[in-house]
Amino acid sequence: MSQTYDFDLFTIGGGSGGVRASRIAATYGAKVALAEERYLGGTCVNVGCIPKKLLVYASEYREVFEDAVGFGWNTSPPQFDWRSLVANKDREIDRLNGVYERLLTGAGVEILRQRAQLLDAHTVSVDRHRFTARYILIATGSWPTMPRIGGIELAITSNEAFHLAELPARILIIGGGYIGVEFAGIFHGLGVQVSQVHRGPVFLRGFDDDLRIGLAAAMRSKGIDLHFGTQVETLERTAAGIGAVLSNGARLEADLVMCCTGRHPNSDGLGLEKTEVKRDEEKAIVVNEYSQTSVQNIYAVGDVTNRRNLTPVAIAEGHAVADLLFGGRSRVIDHESVPSAVFSQPPIATVGLTETEARARYGTVEVYRSAFRPLKHTLTARDERTLMKLVVESTSGRVVGAHMMGTDAGEIIQGLAIALKCGATKAQFDATIGIHPTAAEEFVTMREKS
After folding, report:
1. Which residues contact 363 (CB under 8 A, 6 or more apart)?
2. What are the CA-CA distances from residue 212 to residues 139, 203, 315, 410 (Å)?
3. What is the dotted CATH code of the domain comprising 346-444?
4. Which residues are catalytic?
5. Per CATH, is 7-143+264-326 categorized as 3.40.50.2300?
6. CATH number of 152-261
7. What does the pLDDT look like over 208-228, one tens digit per residue?
8. Buried-most residue among 128, 170, 302, 444 (CB within 10 A)?
9. How confident is the model at residue 337 (pLDDT cuts 50, 70, 90)?
């Protein structure tokens, strides 16, 4: 396309957003380069969504074996091999890395396996080589944040959790975001004694309160030791492992401590100071609705912009940038009604507004709740509940929030996300025939307001 620059698009970062933008731009005929110093696929493929979901699957088998007895299966005590799981997981991640590489090279994207830094608004340095580009896309994601407490060097982050040489007998998880909650379920399911400490009154800030409270109760019933309203002040090496002193004076002992206290935009060391690209107080790159930065030809997508830090959002943003710059198509990504799930045990999922958010926005809302024991567990000894909730704007009858805790929550809420995107009303939910017997049918049979 361009006769002036080395590349039409130079992408810094080979995660989901950067790969999608680069590939689509190349299919439009743009000359594209992508620089990635770690691994193709970014956090999601390598130390995030994909390997974490594989570990979730592995950790669920213990309860499956236990529940099988109620259905007539006579099972011998199962045995788990952590190293086999890690090896199998690594093999799948290697396969996905190859898929990403083939997608890029097949589209004609040049891959540079080194760190890239900006020299000015149109020039990038990679391993002492300089390249010029008409447009530059920053898609460097985010990185785990470690709290400033004494002895923090004794702790690991989620990055290292995927490559442990062996499972600990006891683990302390610091933090109450979705990563910490998911790993609490993973380690517990694999037989580890789990304690989790969170400074707030209950974990998963930003999710509907009924889900947060319901999940905390469910995790405690499984034997996970939750400490809310407190925080770790210091960590120290002891003869028995690692000792943690809490702000309430309590002390916990563990063999491994894992910090899940948030992530920060990975925007340092990119040479942004050599341009006029603006960052906010959290070092997130500031962009407009088209993912354009304060420099006209530089764009940014994904977690480095700290908007909705979800893989599908980064992919959508990257695709939109490629469409805008090379496809003659301008569109804005809707960051509001984005469905999300936490693969906790039991899992939760949500789309739209929480009850608190809906009341703040609309004043009067109608709330429908249903809690029940799943059909599966009528034949098991497990006292596990499913929770479903709809939040409805009273004047229009439009469903503005849907929330679920229970098996397959993510799969079910994904379908409801389409309904909310289309502005479905509670009357339309009520007019829909359910599939029986399923948990999902409860979303179209709830009639009593709570």
Report:
1. none
2. 31, 6, 28, 16
3. 3.30.390.30
4. 436
5. no
6. 3.50.50.60
7. 999 999 999 999 999 999 999
8. 302
9. confident
